Amino acid sequence: MNLILFVSDDDRENAPLQDALTGMAPHFRVEKANSREQIDALSTPALIILDLKLSREPALDLLRWLRTHQRYKQVPVFVLARRNTDATDAYALGANSCLLKPSAQERPGPIARGIVAYASLIAEPASV
Amino acid sequence: MSPWEKLLERPHSRGHFVQLYEADEVALTKNVGLYLWEGLRRGEGVLVIVTPEHRELFCGHLDHLGADLPELLGSRQLVFWDAQQTLAQFMDSGEPDWQRFESIIRAAMRQVRPNAGAEGLRAYGEMVGLLWKARQFAAAIRLEQLCTHTHLVPAQPNGTLETALNRSMDEILGPKADALRVLIKANYRPAWAVMPAAEAIVLWLRKNLPGQADHIIERSRHHYQLLLDPAGSSLFGER
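Output (structure tokens, whole complex):
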């Protein structure tokens, strides 16, 4: 089954979006990781969603690593940013898209639906 | 006279030049001075948005060429605006804002008065250069595009292009197109804040769906033609 990888370590803030993705993407497995080791332990994802606020290492360093890693450099990366300046840096490092983090009041459904639609357009047919 | 000097004397209508000047103030003064002076001699209105230093430089050169500066400034055939102050009026979070840019530049152009019987307006601005000097490269490039777009991309065809792209997305991507539109709209891109929607869609498709982008854009060309010229649609075989 194709994988959407959610790189985040802020469960409280990101849970609504992650839950919405899981609920809307029965053909995808939505997994969470928060370090290079955890990412490497999973199969190659179809899409990576990277929260720019990580506590274990700077998210932009992780993005740089993804963009130079043979296994991930072709995988689209959507970043979740809080500030415009973060977005600018993320684009410079090769992020495909940048979504400003929805506020607590915003429903994550429409964005999740868009992400799932996108993932299903780019995903290779599941090999298993 | 060199072809370049001829072009400066009589630029094409709606033409847009970029003068690179970094350290060569002599070339800048000569080329911009020629451009402004020829416009003034023809009775055209001339708008100059520059730093105070360059205002002094250009005024000195125009005076040397024989311009009656008190008369030109008094009649508003020649209008100077301060580049830094003008820039501040349409920048938003480090990016040029399209609507404010249009509004400010239109206001500046309305101040300029060509001579009776003459028409046309020449403008020279250094706002892109100021952004570049401040190492705000993305904003500088965006502003340069805005300066071009102001003349070349009327609003209506751009709205038509957006409609054509949306139709094409619907046909090729099916029900997913609606969901993707939400994603494209939510996608933050510093320069996109001022980018027309159609342009934003094209760039997003090229970056994120390269496999489908060409097909969608090609199909949207067809829709665009139909929207602009419904009567000629039979040439394309379908409505």
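The first helix of chain A runs from residue 11 to 24.
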